[in-house]
């Protein structure tokens, strides 16, 4: 294992310290490393807080700032943050309008955020994201939450910034989650630092179709396919499950899993666009890059969200975070 | 070799098509794939044009837009674009105020941009970037141009947007290049698609200190070091060569070479900041991410630019490109 680090014990804290130092105009890091919060709080808005295991950067701390999250709680790598972290974040950023936790659908995260919501002195509710169409059941809890989480954070974040109440934000989030599907493919495994070896073995000519963002198995292990074939398989699975209205506009995201370069991601975007067009769908909004990663995994995922005028306008709304910025 | 592609012959064009489609609000792609240009031209400004071999994305096409480049010419992977491409770009974006080519210091690029400048009907000049302190001579031509190129493009781009003339822009560029030094380290080799195998062999416990962005050899091959040791070696080499005034403010860039995740890059930023502080230098401006890459190479580079009030204000000026956006 070759990684830029000093020790596995200090790796996460040193990275968080660097992140907070680099982006100190936008975010602040809690002294006990429990959460990253928005430096310029907005009084009277619902506090949006997310979090999860580290190793998926820039998710979630990279999306703290104007128009997205108020705080993010980083767990250890691939490990849920604790309820204490979430409550501390809530106490730091809540301004009385309530708290909405945005939670990826993994048993540990759901359990800890549920506990945290009960422990909060302010009214707190949770929104669970489960956009991965690859597998129906990962453990006990249904579908996994993957790259669609970033889209939910952007759209719900824009509505929160505009002053929506907690009930409306939860309904919006449920609706965006329902309009969003993702599926990914891995060319290599990630390597968790504390483990020191790849999470799974994969041959030099193989890929894992439907991989999870922690290296969980997908639908099948196959020989490496051409980009057009990969795009067809992923878009087919997404569209079959999503059943978008014919001729509708969608947001198309091609997300890198960590070690795949921009050249290849934009090629996959081209291939995925053609697959959408074949099915009568138009990507009126697009995003390509490393947003929801799996450490040093080579691979990518495709996410499609059905848009309407409201969602398009929320997507276009100003955002100013370390990892996503426009119209500010 | 596992890459997202359909064929090595079509890879670059398909990626450019995806890039142009995804970012069609900002850029346009020439029908013959000769250049990417800014969709909303600004009349009367000096045209800034860069280019070079592909494989370093987002450099250069990702920096076309308000506040940076007017056009970028993508060569084949790791191969200079042709003078014809540069002249076509110049004819498409020049508005009569002259053309400044921003050129990384490699023999092929320098020769082709020089030829193009002679062929242009509008007055054209060139600015050569050679920020890599790792080696004094790579081939015949002196130091290599690496990640500092992006900083030059940002600062000179901001001045061009503000209306500076071609003479002033060239002087500014020379001055920024002189105030900028970089050095990188590779943990793995890149693999050029047409070659199909890694550019160099490197053992599972080794790193290449001072690597070039095409996989050129650096200063030495050593056993993997701790992040603090790597940061110390890179910052030491940079500062020794740059000789910044004591106590001055600098721009610190930690640039990923393609396959290194954000978690590690921010940890390296933290380590590099401490090394600067030890030498009495303060990073008053910072940037961390994949900006000048080497295909799928794992590794990073550190770049330091000595700032003054003028350069700080140019760095802070609005920018709106596919890969760099703020204050718009």
Summarize the biggest pleated sheet of chain A. Answer: 6 strands, mixed
* Chains forming the largest contact: A-B, 59 and 59 residues
User: What is the number of strand segments of chain A?
Assistant: 14
Rg of Cα set of chain A: 19 Å
Mean of pLDDT of chain A: 97
CATH C-level class of the largest domain in chain A is: Alpha Beta
CATH topology of the largest domain in chain A: Rossmann fold
CATH architecture title of the largest domain in chain A? 3-Layer(aba) Sandwich
Describe the global form of chain A: globular
| Residue runs with pLDDT of under 50 for 5 or more positions of chain A | none
Annotation field: number of helices of chain A: 8
Overall SS class of chain A: alpha/beta
What is this structure's SSE topology?
2 copies of one chain form a homodimer.
Chain A (H helix, E strand, L loop, with lengths): L10 H12 L4 E3 L6 E3 L8 E8 L16 E7 L5 H11 L5 E6 L2 H13 L4 E6 L18 H14 L4 H13 L1 E7 L19 E4 L10 E4 L3 H16 L6 E8 L5 H17 L3 E8 L9 E8 L2 H8 L2 E2 L4 E2 L2
Parallel strand pairs in A: 3-4, 3-5, 5-6, 10-11
Antiparallel strand pairs in A: 1-2, 2-4, 7-8, 7-12, 8-9, 10-12, 13-14
Helix pairs in contact in A: 2-3, 4-5, 6-7
């Amino acid at each position: 294992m070759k990684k830029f680090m000093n020790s596995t014990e200090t790796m996460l804290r040193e990275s968080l310290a660097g992140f907070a130092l680099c982006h100190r105009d936008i975010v602040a890091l809690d002294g006990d490393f429990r959460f990253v919060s928005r430096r310029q709080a907005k009084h009277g808005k619902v506090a949006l807080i997310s979090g999860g295991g580290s190793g998926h950067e820039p998710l979630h701390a990279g999306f703290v700032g104007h128009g997205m999250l108020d705080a993010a709680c980083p767990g250890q790598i691939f490990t849920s943050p604790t309820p204490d972290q979430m409550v501390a974040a809530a106490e730091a950023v809540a301004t009385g309008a309530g708290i909405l936790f945005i939670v990826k659908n993994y048993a540990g995260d759901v359990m800890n955020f549920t506990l945290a919501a009960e422990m909060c002195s302010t009214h707190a509710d949770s929104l669970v994201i489960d956009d991965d169409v690859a597998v129906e059941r990962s453990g006990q809890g249904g579908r996994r939450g993957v790259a669609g989480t970033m889209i939910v954070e952007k759209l719900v974040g824009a509505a929160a910034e505009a002053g929506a109440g907690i009930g409306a934000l939860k309904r919006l989030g449920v609706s965006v989650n329902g309009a969003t599907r993702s599926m990914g493919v891995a060319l290599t495994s990630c390597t968790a630092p504390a483990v020191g070896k790849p999470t799974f073995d994969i041959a030099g000519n193989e890929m894992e179709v439907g991989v999870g963002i922690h290296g969980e198995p997908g639908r099948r292990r196959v020989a490496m396919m051409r980009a057009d074939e990969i795009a067809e398989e992923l878009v087919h699975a997404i569209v079959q499950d999503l059943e978008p209205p014919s001729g509708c506009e969608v947001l198309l995201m091609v997300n890198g899993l960590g070690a795949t370069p921009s050249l290849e991601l934009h090629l996959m975007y081209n291939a995925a666009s053609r697959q959408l067009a074949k099915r009568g769908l138009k990507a009126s909004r697009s995003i390509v890059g490393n947003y929801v990663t799996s450490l040093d995994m080579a691979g990518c995922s495709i996410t499609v969200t059905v848009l309407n005028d409201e969602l398009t306008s929320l997507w276009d709304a100003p955002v100013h975070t370390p990892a996503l910025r426009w119209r500010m």
